[in-house]
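Worked example

This section walks through a single chain of length 215. The input is the sequence exactly as stored; nothing has been trimmed or padded.
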Amino acid sequence: MRPQFVTFGDSITQRGFAPGWTGLLADAYQRRADVINRGYSGYNSRWALQLLDRVFPEPTAAAPPPRLATVFFGANDAALPDRGSARQHVPLDEFRSNIRAIAQRLQQIGVPAVVLITPPPISEPDRLVHVEKTYGVKLEVPERTNEVAGQYAAVVEALAAELGLPCLNLWRAFQQVQGWQQRLLNDGLHLTPEGNAEVYRLLQQIIDQRFPELR
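Given that input, the structure is written out below as tokens.
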């Protein structure tokens, strides 16, 4: 059997084969590893916990643990609790606990390479345009803000350091790209083709540096 890489996350992961960063990873590792996309659109870290044992079951001799797993939640957790996406909101302390539980599950079953990925930044004007175009609702304020997304990104980064895991901080990395709001995001949140390519590039960089056996 080829080793497996499992990408676990929300819609940004689910759309990764459309084409996107998970598709680029699969292409790079064709005939070397099977990339399994376990993205769930709309999910937050609380709901992800309900799937954890099914996505990452106890390994057996016939089904060993994945060689690599990515954990990419937070974009929905960071939805503000007093606005239209309130159902997806997860408080910061609970979010921290949930991501820790997911990461520790992966360590417990013996996944040797785990990468935590933070939520991307939010382009608030583009979120307002997206909601109006998609739902016909004109909002005065967006349901997500870049400042709050940054708080969730900081939690992921701190937790990765605590657990000794690499972290891909998209919130920071994307904002270093000039014109990131439209170049990397297509609706203020999800990724453009260039945004997907950037996620893949940064992830492959982490793999090469932290897990050279998986180059």
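What to look for: The first strand starts at residue 4 and ends at 9.
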